[in-house]
Design brief:
By secondary structure, this protein is α+β, with helices and mostly antiparallel strands. About 60% of the residues lie in helices and about 15% in strands.
């Protein structure tokens, strides 16, 4: 089940990136919800908020280490039958793999989800980034609930 979730994230990520790349020119945009959400096709040679821009080898190495650590924890929590941790880690792994595929094959990550939230034009991101953030959020909440349970 967890491997299937991870694969689903990778497939949806790569498919949506392909569709956007095929239908929009670089920096092209389609306003979906005026003043709130657009599909805007951009390349990101860095990490979140374009930090470490152009440092592809470093970002690839960090991704590989991240994936190794996440895999180790996923195996550990699968043995413990900790469903919530396994779901979170599967989402995070799927997201890491989705962006790693772009970094290795294209030397940049394809981003396209563009939101303006309370007047702030949030950095453009993709499905892999979303899966990573959702996975981190689930893991964080699960840890808090576990801590409260033991307190």
């Amino acid at each position: 089940m967890y491997i299937a979730l991870m694969i689903l994230v990778v497939v949806v990520d790569q498919l949506t990136k392909y569709i956007v790349q095929a239908r929009l020119p670089l920096y092209g945009a389609i306003e979906v919800i005026p003043g709130f959400f657009s599909l805007t096709y951009v390349h990101n040679t860095g990490a979140a908020w374009s930090i470490l821009s152009g440092q592809q080898l470093f970002l690839i190495l960090v991704s590989l280490v991240e994936m190794a650590v996440l895999t180790w924890f996923l195996i550990k929590y699968m043995k413990e039958k900790n469903t919530i941790y396994c779901v979170a880690l599967s989402l995070m792994l799927g997201g890491a793999i989705g962006n790693l595929i772009d970094r290795v094959t294209l030397h940049y990550v394809r981003d396209f989800l563009d939101f303006i939230i309370f007047g702030y034009d949030f950095p453009v991101f993709n499905v892999a980034d979303s899966a990573l953030c959702i996975g981190v959020g689930i893991l964080f909440l699960a840890m808090i609930l576990e801590e409260k349970k033991h307190a």
